[in-house]
């Protein structure tokens, strides 16, 4: 399988869908390049996917912004004593460390949660890749806590961690786009669980969205 259709879709500001694997979360995420995000994208992710709308960034930008994983921030916080530190999730049930960092709103948002507000926050974050001084712009332009969770892709991407965060960033790199994406898990309102692969594939077919099998993406990454 080639990933030409997925790369073309991302370049056109359209969605792709990524299934990680049966042996991991076994979930499908709706993915779009952050540099093309619009309120319409957010509305569709909210209505058709229904999971948590997150902003994934690559490790290099995270380092420039001096962002850390939330589990590391909490572990070094004086607020947590030795007992409450037991709450901090170092490893998720599916075996990986969580990629969550802080939650943000852009300073020009009002509540931060509307489709327009979240699109603005995500779009403005994507602009940091073109900034000469991204950390200063980040500090002056964004507030925390907010309504857009930042996910930090592992250094080394798929060689280190095989999650939707890394897969979406890898696809953005293949498309020669800024390595920053908006992703959202697809849920099923009938079963109250994650959308099945079969239903997700049908949704992809009905809506002409490229569907990526994570295992095939991993094989592609190994070769290339």
Query: In CATH's first tier, which class applies?
Result: Alpha Beta
N- to C-terminal distance: 14 Å
Low-pLDDT parts are: none
- The coarse silhouette is globular
Alpha-carbon Rg, integer = 17 Å
Work out the oligomeric state of the chains in this entry. Answer: single chain
* Lateral arrangement of strands in the main beta sheet: 4-5-3-6-2-1-9
The main β sheet shows up as: 7 strands, mixed
Q: Give the SSE string.
A: HEEHEHHEHHEHEEEHEH
* Beta strands, count: 9
Mean pLDDT: 93
Describe the 3D structure.
This protein is an alpha+beta fold. The chain has one domain (4-223): DHBP synthase. Helices cover 37% and strands 20% of the residues. It contains nine helices and nine strands. The protein has helices spanning 4-11, 39-49, 59-65, 70-75, 115-126, 134-141, 164-174, 197-206, 214-223, and strands at 16-19, 28-33, 54-57, 100-106, 142-152, 180-185, 187-188, 193-194, 211-213. The strands form two sheets. The chain has a seven-stranded mixed sheet with strand order 4-5-3-6-2-1-9. Strand 7 and strand 8 (193-194) form a beta hairpin. The protein starts with a helix and ends with a helix. The model has no long low-confidence stretch (mean pLDDT 93).
């Amino acid at each position: 399988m080639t990933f030409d259709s997925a790369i073309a879709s991302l370049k056109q500001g359209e969605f792709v869908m990524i299934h990680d694997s049966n042996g991991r979360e076994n979930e499908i995420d709706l993915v779009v390049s952050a540099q093309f995000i619009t309120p319409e994208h957010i509305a569709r992710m909210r209505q058709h996917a229904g999971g948590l709308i997150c902003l994934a960034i690559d490790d290099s930008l995270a380092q420039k912004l001096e962002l850390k994983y939330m589990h590391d921030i909490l572990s070094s916080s004086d607020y947590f004593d030795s007992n409450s530190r037991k709450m901090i999730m170092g490893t998720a049930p599916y075996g990986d460390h969580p990629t969550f960092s802080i939650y943000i709103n852009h300073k020009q948002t009002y509540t931060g949660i509307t489709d327009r507000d979240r699109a603005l926050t995500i779009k403005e974050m994507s602009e940091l890749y073109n900034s000469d001084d991204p950390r200063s712009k980040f500090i002056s332009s964004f507030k925390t806590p907010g309504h857009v969770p930042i996910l930090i892709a592992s250094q080394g991407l798929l060689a280190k961690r095989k999650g939707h965060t890394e897969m979406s960033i890898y696809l953005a790199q293949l498309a020669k786009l800024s390595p920053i994406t908006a992703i959202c898990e697809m849920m099923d309102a009938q079963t109250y669980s994650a959308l099945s692969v079969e239903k997700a594939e049908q949704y992809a077919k009905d809506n002409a969205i490229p569907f990526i099998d994570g295992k095939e993406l991993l094989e592609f990454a190994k070769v290339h």
